[in-house]
Amino acid sequence: MEHQEQPFTPEQVDEQVEQRFSDLHTPEAQFHSEMQQVTRQIREEHDRSLQRVEQRLMKYARTHAEYAAAKPEKQPASPRTLKQGRSRFMEKKQTSTFARRVTTLVAAFVMVLLVGSLLVVLNLSRQATGTGSKVTPTATATPVKTYSSAQRLCQFADNNNTAGNGPPEPTFDWSANGQLAVTYGNLEIVDGATCAQKLHRDNHGINALWSPDHTRLLSIYTSPQILDASTGKVLATYARTIYGTASGGGGGYMVPDESVWSTDGTQIISLIAGPPHHWTIQTWSASTGRLINTPLTQNGDLGFMSLSPHGTHVAISTGKDIEIWNIATKTLVSHLPASIDDQHYFSRAWSPDETMLALGTADSNHVNIWSVSDGKQIASFADKNIGSLAWSPDGKYLAESNTMIHLWDVRAQKAVATFGDDQWIANLAWSQDGSKIASSAVKQGDFTKNTVSVWKLS
């Protein structure tokens, strides 16, 4: 059989695919690894098909040769017969050559289609995962959830036993498996559907955040600690950093004001108001409590401050505006033209993908949503005496409270549902599956009584 060089060999395809993958980042690695595996399987099936065709042709050739050898000898042919035989042989040879060429062209055409389709998919995937997108597309289309009402699933009382020393309002955090951590001078872990108590601990009541694997809690009280979520046992305690010296005066401990889990659950990222006239970002080990590094420190006193959910960004008020910093790159990303200081009550909520920041103040009677990347205002909602804010997991809705709970469609900028007991709502939290909202109702002026409700959305 004649050999003709194909325009795309398996080696050349591998080389082109590897070149396409060389500049991609780790968040897309799994998707592109699967694409490469699918392409490899298609190529192997194509190679096996060509080998089967070649084997069958060789089989027919051997069968024809054996048949010709078994035929009895014929009398010498006349010159005219020989001439006719040569003509038929040339015709068969030309037909066979033409068939081989057609087969090769078909194979090459198939390879071109495969490579072209692969390159188109790669280009689309790179565009879909570009850093400029405000909402990260998913591999499969997910129906957008709509809400119009809510019903209470369960309710329980959680009173503040450390009045005067404890937090002025409760805090919530949902685990991925539907458990709710509530802090209000104490720590309560309850079943998110029945409010049945699973764990109680006193004096762990400023904040508690679930680890990504929902087996541990980052508990913040006098000093951050890592707790076993099933037993409440302390697994690690934050090793506080000392600044200055006692003899020289002005020394003290750098205690985190806010902390969040890293995405892999191995580290804690903390925001610290200190040393004096500085703010600092520290990273410490979730298993030992020891300091790992200090990726960022800047001049300035902290009024408003907030870490994004995964510790990628930090928002800092300068008194004139709000600066958004990228912690890993140590760069100032944007300025939000919003004036918030420690003299004004405010509420804030980062969108789950960290691309938007919602801010509300009681005296402005507005909730404004800002783009983190460029500092532009995306949406604004008008309401009175804004209490708490919470995003839906898909970033489509924002829950906002005062004496009732309002669900806002961010894109349409309209309220789609209102519910509650006509009591002051101090805090909200949206479950990770998007089906429930937890609310905390306290009596204004009485920071000892607290009632937690879990609402089923529909």
How would you sum up this structure, described in words?
It is a single chain. The protein is of the alpha+beta class and 458 residues long. It has 2 domains: 1-63 and 112-125, no CATH class; 150-457, 7 Propeller (Methylamine Dehydrogenase, Chain H). It has 3 helices and 30 strands. The chain has a 4-stranded antiparallel beta sheet, with no helix packed on it. Helix 2 packs antiparallel against helix 3. The longest helix has 50 residues, at 79-128. The N and C termini lie far apart (69 Å).
Q: Order of strands across the widest beta sheet?
A: 1-30-29-28
CATH structural fold name of the largest domain: Methylamine Dehydrogenase, Chain H
Count of helical stretches? 3
Structural class: alpha+beta
Give the terminus-to-terminus CA distance.
Answer: 69 Å
Indicate the low-confidence ranges by residue numbers: 1-5, 21-29, 71-83, 89-93, 117-142
Percent of residues in β-strands? 35-45%
CATH class of the largest domain: Mainly Beta
Keyphrases for this structure?
458 residues, alpha+beta, Methylamine Dehydrogenase, Chain H, four-stranded antiparallel sheet, 3 helices, disordered N terminus
Give a short synopsis of this structure.
This protein is α+β, with helices and mostly antiparallel strands and 458 residues long. The protein has three helices and 30 strands.
Please describe the topology of this protein.
Layout: H1 10-21, H2 29-70, H3 79-128, E1 150-157, E2 171-174, E3 179-183, E4 186-191, E5 197-202, E6 207-210, E7 216-220, E8 225-228, E9 234-237, E10 241-245, E11 249-254, E12 256-261, E13 267-272, E14 278-285, E15 291-299, E16 305-307, E17 313-317, E18 322-326, E19 331-336, E20 346-350, E21 356-361, E22 366-371, E23 377-382, E24 388-391, E25 397-401, E26 405-409, E27 414-419, E28 425-430, E29 436-443, E30 446-457
Antiparallel strand pairs: 1-30, 2-3, 3-4, 4-5, 6-7, 7-8, 8-9, 10-11, 12-13, 13-14, 14-15, 16-17, 17-18, 18-19, 20-21, 21-22, 22-23, 24-25, 25-26, 26-27, 28-29, 29-30
Helix pairs in contact: 2-3
